[in-house]
Design goal:
305 residues; alpha+beta; four-stranded antiparallel beta sheet
């Protein structure tokens, strides 16, 4: 009987404040969708780092005849055959080096033409202007500085570059987007909490006569508060469910279909459905608990029991 009464009171409260309840559901859904999206974005960045950092190389660019006239580090002239042999031998002896590949000027010119054949400068570039290089695969990419310290400034070496720096700008951009999403989520969360508190206040005021009668007949504070708390929790749970749907639909249309990033960006290792499903229980739990706690706190001020 008590459970039936509580459920009936929840239905009455939701009907009386239908517009505000809908606003709570929408605001909770948007804030939790942004929260889940931020979590997935962070996992995507981590996945991409693990995938790409394992594949990038350290490039040791060697001096050519053109560099001898323009680059201060190549003032002694183009790299000699003996210098190349010594550099490769020293690389092979390093424990942190997994493999070494020498790219000749002709190979570099071929790759450049394949990638930039449509540009105007490609028609005037000649093979002798391209730099020879050693592409070094490390056991641990984080130890790039060991190679840079050992070979930067050597005779015949123009520069030592870590290809991770090329990717870092992309990762920084994605991290910035993640922070922006969290900021918007925080704003939406504040709006949702304000709506929840206001909804509870209006609901408590509209039913002040019923709560007064319940207090007179000896109902406990918890029993009087329960319908209001469960109303907020129910609205929050619906908002969490909508947020879960938004996350699933977003993953489906952004990566698999619609925009189909997985098809257009085949070199990117996108997170799978398992990562999305793993976040859904957390989104639902927050959607349920956050409004319930907010309602409980609000009731202590607006419902004198």
């Amino acid at each position: 009987m008590r459970a039936q009464f509580v459920l009936s009171e929840i239905g009455v409260g939701l009907r009386r404040n239908l517009t505000m309840t809908f606003a709570v559901i929408v605001s909770v859904a948007l804030s939790l969708a942004l929260f889940g999206g931020a979590l997935l974005m962070r996992e995507q960045v981590s996945t991409m780092k693990d995938y790409w950092y394992d594949k990038v190389n350290v490039s040791i660019f060697l001096c050519n005849k053109t560099d001898a006239a323009t680059a201060p580090k190549c003032a002694k002239g183009a790299v000699t055959g003996q210098q190349k042999e010594q550099i490769e031998a020293d690389l092979q002896e390093m424990d942190i080096v997994e493999s070494v590949h020498h790219e000749s000027a002709d190979e570099a010119f071929k790759h450049y033409k394949e990638q930039y054949s449509d540009t105007a400068i490609a028609s005037v570039i000649t093979p002798d202007q391209m730099q020879e290089s050693f592409r070094v695969k490390l056991e641990d990419p984080e130890k790039y500085k060991v190679v840079a310290t050992a070979f930067a400034g050597r005779d015949g070496v123009e520069s030592v570059q870590d290809q991770r720096n090329i990717l870092q700008n992309l990762f920084d951009l994605m991290n910035g987007m993640n922070i922006a999403a969290l900021g918007v989520m925080g704003l939406m969360l504040v709006i949702a909490l304000m709506l929840i508190v206001n909804t509870v206040r209006v609901s408590a005021f509209s039913r002040r006569r019923e709560t007064g009668i319940m207090r007179l007949v000896g109902a406990s504070s918890f029993y009087i508060q329960m319908p209001f708390i469960m109303e907020a929790a129910f609205a929050g749970l619906l908002g969490g469910a909508v947020a879960c749907v938004l996350l699933l639909v977003g993953r489906y249309f952004l990566i698999d279909h619609g925009i189909a990033l997985a098809e257009k960006m085949q070199l990117v290792n996108f997170i799978g459905w398992d990562a999305v499903f793993a976040k859904l229980p957390l989104v639902l739990a927050i959607g349920l608990l956050m409004p319930a706690v907010a309602a409980f706190v609000a009731l202590r001020k607006y419902l004198k029991v």
